[in-house]
Design goal:
Strand content of chain B: 15-25%
Oligomer: heterodimer
Number of helices of chain B: 7
Helix content of chain A: 55-70%
Family (chain B): Belongs to the ABC transporter superfamily.
InterPro entries (chain B): AAA+_ATPase, ABC_transporter-like_ATP-bd, ABC_transpr_CbiO/EcfA_su, ECF_ABC_transporter_ATP-bd, P-loop_NTPase
GO molecular function, one term (chain B): ATP binding
Radius of gyration of chain B: 19 Å
Keywords (chain B): ATP-binding, Nucleotide-binding, Transport
Pfam family, one (chain B): ABC_tran
CATH topology of chain B: Rossmann fold
Number of strands of chain B: 10
CATH architecture of chain B: 3-Layer(aba) Sandwich
Number of domains of chain B: 1
Largest interface: A-B, 32 and 41 residues
Order of helices and strands of chain A: HHHHHHHH
Amino acid sequence: MICLYVEGRSWLHRLAAGWKLIVLLLVSILIMQLRSVPQLSLALAATLALYPVLGEGWIRRLQVLRPLWPILVIILLVHGLPGDWSLGLLVVLRLCTMVLLAHLVTLTTRLDAMLAAIEPLFRPLAWIGISPRLPALAMVLVIRFVPVLAGIREALDEAWRARDPSERGLGRRRTRWYGKWRKMRALLPPLLIQALRLSDQVAEALTARGGAAGFRPEP
Amino acid sequence: MFWRKRAETQRTAAAVFDLKADPWARLSSVGLEIDGRTILQDLTLELREARIGIVGLNGSGKSSFIRLLNGLRQPTSGHLEIFGVDAALDPAALPRHVGFVFQNPDHQAIFPIVEEDVAFGLTQLGRPRDEALAAARTFLVDHGAGHLAARPIADLSEGQKQLVAILAVLIMQPAVILLDEPFSALDGLAGRRLQEWLAALPQRLVLISHDRAHLQGFERILWIEDGRLRGDGDPATVLAAYDREIERRATLAGPGGWSEGHL
């Protein structure tokens, strides 16, 4: 999964990127105002009801929530243990709904459309001599390269598993959690190095095609 | 700061490239140092041929050399002139006329979808997005890649990726295209096709390759070794000398002996 965008011809794909972002903003504000569990459950259900526009395999797209679960559990406990479980549930529902909605916009919007939609927001920067393309392109490139980074992490993970004896029941016996911790500790530095290298490559590719601000008109 | 730097170049340099300049590149005792390490030194030559091949062992400085030619790197000594203009004057404007195809197409794609990435070059030249996208689609169709337009680059075969990478550069209509080992990830058939396709391009090409089959029809070969120009001339002579050197070093090291720096 190197590319987040899912090809499709649904109404959500066809809706202009600018509208999608505005609606996302308004709905997110609205969701912040909802303060009861039934209301938020309804909002979450409505969000989930939108996902089938992605077509076959839409259920897999919900996995975006998976890496979030430790945070969600912590939020639930922080509110719940002092006695307010419903507040914890409220926050968790709110987060899930907003993440899923934003993800849906990412999945159905191409990056060039996204770039064209957010670039005008930065137009005032032109008054002080900064190209509005710079921040817009930076935002779009984050969306672009997060899945690439995830791919790098996966490759490192595989390299680790291929050579870690405990993965094959050999070596010293360790608890599962200790193994995970050890792996994370070992893989963090190479992951950072590869992330830096990736950013160098992207910068070079960008420079080779005229830089973030683009070519200025021919004299 | 970066934007300030850019604004300054805009003020001071209105480089007017002379695309008819012959030679298009002129190097006099050009050297390149990175972090105190000498990468290239004492390069004095002129480039004017339509097809120039570059050979040399890994780490010899080939990639750095062609990066000088489109402003990705600036020489730390000597003088470099591209299309009649000092390359240090306006390096940001150089890629407009000197396109660069990276060794790994995955390192070149800025946008994930084929037509987005091809259109990106046009928006960089100031064309509005819709117009650029339409032009990119037509361009892809014209080059027999219309069926790839809406596909994610990551899903393509290596040959298709390389083709898209070159088209993304070609659509900007550079006068020269630099190619850093474009064949390295291709199988024999895809390599052959790409080679024939490249041969038909009207642009001047500078191509790094390890495989002499890909240098067929080239007018001039540069052999770079340890950052210096070791050979320069017609393909038959230079490639023969290069082969002899490889043979000499291979036998020198003996079987199983890895010479320094060439693992």
